[in-house]
Amino acid sequence: MIMQNIAIKRLTMNDCAFKNPKSKSHQIGFNLPRRAFESMFNDLVTDESERVIAQNFVVKWFDMDNELIVEIMQAIKFYHSKGELRMVDLNHEGLKEIFNVGTLLLFRRFGIDIQVTVYPPNSEEIITNQYGIDLISKIPTRKSS
After folding, report:
1. Do residues 60 and 114 make contact, with C-beta atoms less than 8 angstroms apart?
2. What pTM does this model have?
3. Average pLDDT, stretch 8-31?
4. 122 alpha carbon, distance to own chain's centre
């Protein structure tokens, strides 16, 4: 399988639940839908018998004007039992503020480096104009997100 180096994620209510002070979430992070991200992280999505496979990445977070928000170390995990990819370790105040339901996150992977550009909700047309419709077509519809 050829590794894609670009994918997109729309944040859901579940993804942003950890922002609620009453949240009982033990892991601050969100799901990366396999339809969009499996190719990007195919080195983690394996048939091995390990229950959880994790890899740390240097992640640079940018706003849509390409201004750096923060650069931090974060983990991507693949849970075999759930067949699920997750980005974890998101307990950073600068990031928590920008995570809102509907926010679009454009991921680019370069080995162990990841760049994430944060777009406000309803930015699908901007992303389509820059990257094409194929990228947007892989994110779940609003009804399922």
Report:
1. yes
2. 0.86
3. 79
4. 17
